[in-house]
Amino acid sequence: MRIIKHDEYLSQLTFMPRLFPVNCYLVEEEEEGLTLVDAALPYSAAGIMQAVKDSGKPLARIVLTHAHDDHVGALDKLKASFPEAEVYISERDALLLAGDRSLQPGEPQMPIRGGVPKSVKSRADHLVREGDSIGSLLVIAAPGHTPGSISLLDKRTGSLLVGDAFHTRGGLTVTGHLRLRFPFPALATWNKEAALASAVRLAEHRPTLLAAGHGEMLKDPAGKMQAAIAAARRWLERE
Ligand SMILES: [Zn+2]
Questions:
Q1: What is the pLDDT of residues 46-63, one digit of tens each?
Q2: Ligand 1 being an ion, which residues bring their Cβ within 5 A of it?
Q3: Domains parsed from the chain with CATH numbers
């Protein structure tokens, strides 16, 4: 596991940085301890636990940007070690977390893609939606990759934790835009049009840092976000 501390509040934890990088993040609150954003892979639990221990602060919360396998893998083990940590996910992706891939009435009837957990036992303590605050993090709905994907904006710093709404591995890319350099997020994306609309909304928040589920953190991302949105739009129009 590799750890990169971005600033006093945000650290990125990366598993398999060379092959298939999977990130999760620790966000420090002044008083309430740590928030873990995403729970990586099952074997990631030991590394995450060590990072929490090294911080000297308690793990208060686990927030899931969406319920794909590589974002919830260590959840059960972490809950067993930190039973006081409360789990947050969107209402919509709580169904996916429970292994239910069925589409809801009114949703575009296209199959939910990607690895959806089959045996995760933990359930959310809090179902969140656009505009909710989780400590210093503002919840922004970012449907597309999954129907209930969320992103999280740290109101103190402008750091934006996008989940898989964008990835930076292979160059900043809107999820759903299939690029051979790193095709996996696109192949796991439910609704490309919704993903593009979410990317546009995320850019409007003018983040100072983009922190994605896959790839390196990106400082001052505005220009690259606009370029990635334009590239995804051109690609979708050709599809
Ligand atoms: Zn995903």
A1: 999 999 999 999 999 999
A2: 68, 164
A3: 2-238 (3.60.15.10)
